[in-house]
Amino acid sequence: GGCSEPRSRHRTPAWVTERDSGTISVGVDATDLFDRYDEEYEDVSGSSFPQIEINKMHISQSIEAPLTATDTAILSGSLSTQNGNGGGSINFALRRVTSAKGWGELEFGAGDLQGPLFGLKLFRNLTPRCFVTTNCALQFSSRGIRPGLTTVLARNLDKNTVGYLQWRWGIQSAMNTSIVRDTKTSHFTVALQLGIPHSFALISYQHKFQDDDQTRVKGSLKAGFFGTVVEYGAERKISRHSVLGAAVSIGVPQGVSLKVKLNRASQTYFFPIHLTDQLLPSAVFYATVGPLVVYFAMHRLIIKPYLRAQKEKELEKQRESAATDVLQKKQEAESAVRLMQESVRRIIEAEESRMGLIIVNAWYGKFVNDKSRKSEKVKVIDVTVPLQCLVKDSKLILTEASKAGLPGFYDPCVGEEKNLKVLYQFRGVLHQVMVLDSEALRIPKQSHRIDTDG
């Protein structure tokens, strides 16, 4: 695993532009859809329509810009609201790569709910298979200074497996051990945390299908002092830069939630929809089947036609540029043929005088059966003059390279299989030969003779 490599490897001036990333999270309370049926107010006028409301929002954005080959500046900000109350913060960090083995980062932050924050992060490769990160922070507030310290020790256990030991002190103290195994087809995590106020055990598995859409299905079980949560879901690529995912979370005492996530380039849009506080089978059913029905309907009616139209557009563009290219090559070939006329006349005279090699007719391109020959005629070009120009001492030798590069030739049907067909006269006898574009050709040859004996 590349986990032991310092992140600095990716911070070298290979990318000179800024990297930005952002998250928009919108929490939706849809408990009225399911929990309302338990209540008695159904017959009260005006309450028949369920209330669905947004109760949480979170927006964060960060931008990384390289200052020098070793220094990077990171500016990030976030805003959060919950039930009408909220606040925001802005952070500035400066990261310096100190050596091939490590980097350090200084962070300054300020917000309207919390006071200034000072932080220091250090990363170091201890051995080729082991690294450590330490994060110290001082949070200033009206109640004084709150220090915090987080240290993570990681070790590559084998090619695909990394073990992590995390120790957190100060703000939410905890000890956490986890093992992560990541292969081409699967991702497996097992973790155990002992801490104040949260202690839990977690096991999660993700299967990666090897299809074009990079489909993944995942499931996890988390149990601790706060209760038990089972989560299952799937994600899939819906366009070149977009991944859509949905997960159903069933917990005691949390209830049932549906989480929808869209990753578009470096932006993430997240919609956790809380459906019910209880374990209602109907909520689980709708949370599972609903997104599938919506996805397949969207895929069939919107995404597929859109991607098809995009593909058509690209093909059309390619065709147009290929046509322009062919036209240009055709003009170049025609002017080359005009320049050859005089020397070809001399070659023919010389060959005729010694009953040598005369090219009667030569065609190059895609040959089709007679029925559709008329419409396809454009895909074959006359190369009699350029071939005669290559005749030397009653011989013509062509290599295995594509004939489209020969003087006076051009490619009349880019990307398709082509042949060269030659009708020639040698010692007054007609000969005929047809070769593939990538075949060598030597004429004259006894085997090319056309038998006129009948």
From TrEMBL:
GO cellular component annotations of the record: mitochondrion
Domain (DNAJC11-like beta-barrel): residue spans on this chain: 57-269
Domain DnaJ-like protein C11 C-terminal residue range list: 317-444
GO biological process: cristae formation
Keyword annotations of the record: Chaperone
Listed PANTHER family: DNAJ HOMOLOG SUBFAMILY C MEMBER 11 (PTHR44157:SF1)
Name under which the protein is recorded: DnaJ heat shock protein family (Hsp40) member C11
Species of provenance: Nomascus leucogenys
